[in-house]
Amino acid sequence: MNRSATLAAPEAVHPSLWLASQLAHSATRCVDTGFAALSAQLPGGGWPLGTLIDLLVQQHGIGELRLLRPALLGLGKRPIALLQPPHAPQALALAALGLEPSQLIWIRSGAKSGDALWAAEQVLRSGCCGALLLWQNHARGETLRRLHLAAQSGDTLFCMLRPLAAAQDASPAPLRLSLHTAPGGVNIGFVKRRGPQRDTPLFLPLTPSLLQRHAPLDRNTPATAPARSILPALVG
Questions:
Q1: Residue 167: CATH number of its domain
Q2: Membrane spanning segments where (predicted)?
Q3: Is the pTM of this model over 0.85?
Q4: Which of 127, 193, 187, 124 is nearest to 159 (CA)?
Q5: CB-CB neighbours of 236 under 10 Å
Q6: In terms of Cα–Cα distance, which of 50, 236, 32, 188 is closest to 132?
Q7: CA 69 – CA 186 distance, rounded (Å)
Q8: Among residues 124, 88, 126, which one has the least CA distance to residue 106?
Q9: Which residue, of 111, 138, 160, 208, is most buried by count of CB atoms within 10 Å of its CB?
């Protein structure tokens, strides 16, 4: 291959190479995000499998599960592990997203954060689940590298949901997105991706779930108060 051809298509030399002005070709299989505007901004055109994806949220329940919903539905009947979610999963809210409660595995670890990270590593290395969603507030660089390495041993959709402040920390994750609340959807910031830097966020409209559309507005209704307290985090 001559030099000009190499400059035009560096991925032909090695899949890890790409031009700074172009999105990289994903070296792993990807699953469609279900949102054309978002997929067009991601290397490989979707969520990469078998790797660590860092989702940095402004707060829980702003749309992160609705954002992942099409990809989770695209996994077929493979189990979906929820590790240390901020609220107890509720069958009604999950069914409103189209997710079968029998498909979901809720994993509660001990009080130590290391227990949850150990459990995540075991799930990833076993390859038993189609997706693993892990909620964590803090994780050291060494731990993130271990999880990223464990994810590479299979084809699990692995998303780690952390606070926005974690965007300042280094991470081996090849894809890091920040999620900010916005009327009618979310603003997605591209903290890190294999491709050109994008400074302006991408607004993604998200359709409210059935439960959100029909949730009563009266906060004083006793029968609905418990459900309202967990609804945003589960169908957000």
A1: 3.40.50.300
A2: none
A3: no
A4: 124
A5: 22
A6: 50
A7: 14
A8: 88
A9: 160
